[in-house]
Amino acid sequence: MELDGRVAVVTGGTRGVGAGIARAFLRAGAEVVVCARRPPDRPVADAGRAADFEAVDLRRPGQAADLLARIAERYGRLDTLVNNAGGTPYRRLGDGGPERHARVLELNLTVPLTLSLAAHPALRAARGSVLMIGSVSGTRPSPGTAAYGAAKAGLENLARTMAVEWAPEVRVNTLVLGMVRTERSHLHYGDAEGIAAVGRTVPLGRLAEPADVGEAAVFLASDRAAYISGASLLVHGGGERPAFLAAATANKPPEPPERTAPPGPTRPTGPTDPEENRDGTV
Questions:
Q1: 7-244 sits in which CATH class?
Q2: Where in this chain does the record put each Ketoreductase domain (predicted)?
């Protein structure tokens, strides 16, 4: 129970990746608080224990500080903050207007900053850690989710700066996620066959499970990662195969049939060009 006695907060922790992280922390022995705007259909639980739930809209001024005050009163400490809450609808840059893009930036970048600042005194006292949940969308073009990709790129940079400014008391790291199979995967990839087909495009042959992300999160929060700060850990199954490889394979001309050379005199072995004799002999 490597997190036994520690307290962790997971934003957006009632479903999907957040719930996977919360369950992994519960299995590791931590006391876990999950927060979201609406309560889950059933408690987030694992290993015979359940996470506490806090209803909060972190985009509303003051609610981050109120949340941390309640946790301090209830538990007396905070060891890990997991900034998981985020997301975006599919929206081209020219659609929806700048206000909608600004809300995506707020949820995915400003909220983690605000909550981390509110949590800093408690984390510093516990010599704890912040864990940002990033995305491969922050490291490559993100058509249809441009504001989200920009926010995730900024989040990774924010984590690295926090790691410098808040050292040595607080460690700050980022999990950079690829595609994860959650309750909503069917909205993006279709039925089970479609999800499996998308998974086969990943080098490891499948989408990540929330539990995969949870185990990586536990590692970065634990003493095993005591010297890891300012790091970005890729949890993407090997990434994405470059598109040009598929195109090259599809258009590759067939190999010519092998030809068997007629028998002839035996050729001498070894170099025949004096330039190949590196010791200068001929």
A1: alpha beta
A2: 6-173
